[in-house]
């Protein structure tokens, strides 16, 4: 673990006040003056150690250590329990900008609470700071990109509105101090492929650059005033993004007047010179020069530790380092990190704010609003008592990771979807079977259907005894039945919110396979990032005990894994390689007793435990079809997993490579499962959990209903169950286009926007951007524009009335699209572009008049040279609950035309 500062900051400030106070500790001075004073007191060697994300303490100046790397994409991540919201793509599906501001505020509140507690413990470690590398506002231009789940979708306007509100929520409203500092990323033109990101050169047209890839970044800096920004891995027009004069000097500093600091993506500056990367520079010193002089202020990594050498060799001047350091320390001053805690309002936030009931209520609302109903033949909402037995089938029916998404916080006690549906349908017999692996050859958690707490028991799961120390002495603190061994305890204890509690768990019961055979099982304890925590586990099969010990400290040598005397995969320190063992099942009724012991001497930065196996589709399908045939209704919980789609992942399986997808269809194993379920003739509802668009053509054709629920966070299971039974009327909208096939799209490596997203796509999508159904109906009428003729530079106001014409209350999302002249702008303008949206709750029969105001920038277009201007011509406005010509829309959009006279250029 990183060496902690020797003194707490409050002690530093008090001591300074009692002596001759240095200027950097004087709250009466400006942040710029204080930062300049502090930097002026440092040696060159000290300065270099401040330029990496893990900035070292400077004891002689009483400067504590600080790590700029903190994550808060959809909840504070990697620092213990936190309120976990839907993944960013799910938050985007809410189309609720004020809610995003509230979510940002909750995340900032919990971040401050954690930071305040950490400082009380003299902990200055990674993930406990106040500079957050979020939000990800790259455009999700292609559904094959695995990190698209982290974004707000494919549209610049939607991304802009949600991103601005999220940033403002994070940074707070205090006139003097930031609550936390937001870092929108990745600047710029960055959206896959993951495998090529360290050497890929993007050459966007000027039109695409300014029309699609930069507007949301401009808004984040100019409007939301984010105080930090992260540069990307890729090159742009030949220069690495973190060394791009175009991006970091011409646009960011000169055009947008950015005054904050730039951080590199992790290892991005290494990519300037290391083999098989950009290799635009010969060595680390030259890479440091290129990045620093372009304006990258801090390096996630260690390359900037060579800055002192670059100064001594004459590549840069020490004053060049000072420019960046002043920006970095000004940010820390604005966070209140050099002021007495009593004078910083956010420093008073108590730890009890973490996981508070009020915060949980926001997560529940977000999950509810993110649900997108794609199809419904009238089967939904489910009617109480209509179905005696319901079969929940699919790998996502009991998946923890598919609630979490990536860059996730730790929910305290998340419920699995099947359990939430069972609670929502009390009195109905709800049975479960996984039915298929996500994709053939990929490990999945051992299903609860294979586990029982005692021989002969019909209850599913294993008996779990939790002990309040790292041993099994005495009486368990808690005894219960855990349905699966699938726990994410990264930095937390299952027994308490305290971040440093030791504990032990013993699971006992029986293990049964659905089909006879010999199967390999994996016990995965995950990875411990930068910690000195020890985790140990032991497995007994049929009473034969061979201890499996794993110490996570990086210096630990390989330890052989032995199960029943057989050596399996080695456990290597600080890796995620699992222990492996095989069990033979002579027939599918044979059970083996199993005992798993797990202990950890500290919860600080530790991980969890998963018992997995790799079944073939043929192993799981018979059990699922049997359950379906014995049921009255099937709920197929299908989709993807963040273990398959995500950031630069070591996955190479059919349809998946490096975290991206090569095939946007439902994986073949799940497709076969769905075909089998539909063939039973039972009514079938498909529930999707995933982070990107799926070509679910079979489900669209044959299923009775389809609900898209994304990676929905800590309240996601409850939200999707409540949606199915009608307690939540779905109101989410797609933030991305669902295509019928990847063959409808250009190549993944092609960054041209032609034939991409709803703005430029020429074909017929499966489901259009902005689409989503409700359990009620809405109608639009009386669209009225304030002017039919505008001069360039005028604003435009539009009014429309929306009415709930159905029988139940519901929320409608009214969407305003601008339709530019088809013949204008040399044909470069999108065929339509979102320029406004509002959520409105309406009771049956209730009407509401909505007003939209479009600014000159919203009425402008970008030409071939990248110049944004208001251009003359005949335009139209369309307002409705979907795109104006969406064939699936249930309400006719209102349309009105207008003209613009004259031309007016707008600044970049």
Automatic annotation (TrEMBL):
Gene Ontology process terms (BP): arabinan catabolic process; xylan catabolic process
PA14 domain ranges (all copies): 457-628
UniProt entry keywords in alphabetical sequence: Hydrolase, Signal
Signal peptide: 1-18
Region named Disordered: 555-574, 881-908
Stretches with biased composition (Polar residues): 556-574, 891-908
UniProt GO molecular function: alpha-L-arabinofuranosidase activity; xylan 1,4-beta-xylosidase activity
Coiled coil: none
Pfam families in UniProt: Fn3-like, Glyco_hydro_3, Glyco_hydro_3_C, PA14
Family from the record: Belongs to the glycosyl hydrolase 3 family.
Name the record gives this protein: Beta-glucosidase-like glycosyl hydrolase
Organism per entry: Terriglobus roseus (strain DSM 18391 / NRRL B-41598 / KBS 63)
């Amino acid at each position: 673990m990183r060496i902690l500062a020797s003194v707490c900051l409050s002690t530093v400030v008090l001591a300074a006040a009692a002596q001759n106070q240095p200027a950097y500790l004087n709250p009466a001075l400006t942040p710029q003056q204080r930062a300049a004073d502090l930097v002026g007191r440092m040696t060159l060697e000290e300065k270099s150690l401040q330029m990496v994300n893990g900035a070292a303490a400077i004891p002689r100046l009483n400067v504590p250590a600080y790590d700029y790397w903190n994550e808060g994409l959809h909840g504070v991540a990697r620092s213990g329990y936190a309120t976990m919201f839907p993944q960013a793509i799910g938050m985007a599906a809410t189309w609720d900008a004020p809610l995003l501001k509230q979510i940002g505020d909750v995340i900032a509140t919990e971040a401050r609470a954690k930071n305040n507690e950490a400082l009380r413990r003299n902990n200055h470690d990674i993930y406990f700071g106040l500079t957050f590398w979020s939000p990800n506002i790259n455009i999700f231009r292609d559904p094959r990109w695995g990190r698209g789940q982290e974004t707000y979708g494919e549209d610049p306007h939607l991304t802009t509105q949600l991103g601005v509100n999220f940033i403002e929520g994070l940074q707070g409203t205090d006139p003097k101090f930031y609550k936390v500092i937001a870092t929108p990323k990745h600047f710029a033109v960055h959206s896959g492929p993951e495998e090529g990101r360290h050497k890929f050169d993007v050459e966007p047209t000027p039109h695409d650059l300014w029309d699609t890839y930069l507007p949301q970044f401009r808004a984040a800096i100019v409007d939301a005033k984010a105080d930090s920004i992260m540069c990307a891995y890729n090159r742009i027009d030949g220069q690495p993004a973190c060394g791009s004069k175009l991006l970091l000097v011409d646009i960011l500093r000169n055009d947008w007047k950015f005054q904050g600091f730039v951080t590199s993506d992790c290892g991005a500056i290494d990519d300037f010179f290391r083999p098989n990367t950009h290799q635009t520079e010969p060595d680390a010193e030259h890479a440091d020069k290129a990045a620093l002089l372009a304006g990258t202020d801090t390096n996630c990594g260690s390359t900037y530790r060579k800055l002192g050498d670059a100064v001594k060799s004459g590549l840069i001047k020490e004053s060049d380092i000072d420019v960046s350091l002043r920006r970095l320390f000004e940010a820390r001053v604005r966070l209140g990190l050099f002021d007495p805690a009593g004078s910083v309002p956010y420093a008073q936030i108590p730890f009890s704010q973490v996981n508070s009931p009020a915060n949980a209520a926001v997560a529940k609302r977000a999950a509810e609003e993110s649900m997108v109903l794609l199809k419904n033949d009238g089967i939904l909402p489910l009617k109480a008592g209509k179905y005696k037995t319901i079969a929940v089938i699919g790998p996502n029916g009991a998946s923890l990771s598919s609630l979490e998404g990536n860059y996730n916080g730790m929910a305290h006690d998340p419920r699995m979807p099947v359990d939430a549906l069972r609670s929502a349908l009390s009195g109905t017999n709800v049975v479960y079977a996984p039915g298929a692996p996500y994709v053939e050859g990929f490990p999945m958690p051992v299903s609860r259907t294979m586990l029982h707490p005692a021989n002969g028991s019909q209850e599913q799961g294993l008996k779990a005894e939790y002990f309040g120390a790292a041993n099994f002495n005495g009486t368990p603190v808690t005894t219960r039945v855990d349905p699966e061994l699938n726990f994410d305890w990264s930095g937390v204890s299952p027994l308490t919110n305290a971040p440093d509690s030791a504990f032990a768990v013993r699971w006992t019961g029986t293990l049964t396979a659905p089909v006879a055979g010999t199967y390999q099982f994996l016990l995965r304890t995950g990875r411990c990032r930068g910690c000195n925590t020890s985790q140990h586990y032991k497995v007994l099969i049929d009473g034969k005990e061979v201890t499996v010990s794993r110490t996570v400290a990086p210096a630990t040598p390989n330890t052989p894994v032995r199960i029943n005397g057989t050596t399996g995969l080695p456990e290597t320190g600080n890796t995620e390689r699992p222990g492996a063992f095989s069990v033979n099942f002579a027939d599918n009724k044979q059970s083996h007793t199993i005992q798993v012991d797990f202990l950890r001497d500290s919860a600080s930065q530790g991980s969890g435990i998963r018992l997995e196996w790799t079944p073939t589709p043929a192993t799981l399908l018979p059990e699922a079809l049997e359950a379906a045939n014995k049921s009255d209704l099937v709920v197929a919980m299908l989709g993807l997993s963040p273990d398959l789609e995500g950031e630069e992942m070591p996955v190479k399986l059919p349809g998946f490579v490096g975290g991206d997808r090569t095939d946007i269809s439902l994986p073949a194993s799940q497709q076969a499962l769905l075909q089998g379920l539909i063939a039973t003739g039972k009514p079938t509802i498909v529930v999707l959990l995933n982070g990107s668009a799926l070509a679910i053509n079979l489900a669209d054709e044959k299923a009775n209903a389809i609900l898209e629920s994304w990676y929905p966070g800590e309240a996601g299971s409850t939200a999707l169950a409540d949606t199915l039974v009608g307690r939540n009327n779905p109101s989410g909208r797609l933030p991305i286009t669902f295509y019928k096939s990847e063959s409808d799209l250009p190549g993944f490596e092609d960054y041209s926007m032609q034939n991409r997203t709803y703005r430029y796509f020429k074909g017929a999508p499966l489901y259009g951007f902005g689409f989503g159904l409700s359990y009620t109906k809405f109608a639009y009428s009386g669209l009225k524009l304030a002017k039919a003729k505008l001069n360039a530079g005028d604003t435009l106001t539009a009014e429309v009335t929306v009415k709930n014409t159905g029988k139940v209350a519901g929320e409608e999302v009214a969407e305003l699209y601008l339709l530019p002249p088809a013949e204008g702008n040399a044909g470069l303008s999108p065929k339509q572009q979102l320029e406004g949206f509002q959520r409105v709750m309406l009771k049956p029969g209730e009407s509401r008049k909505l007003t939209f105001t479009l600014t000159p920038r919203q009425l402008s277009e970008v030409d071939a040279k990248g110049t944004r201007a208001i251009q003359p011509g005949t335009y139209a406005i369309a307002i409705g609950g979907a795109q104006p010509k969406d064939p699936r829309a249930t309400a006719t959009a209102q349309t009105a035309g207008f003209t613009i006279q004259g031309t007016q250029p707008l600044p970049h």
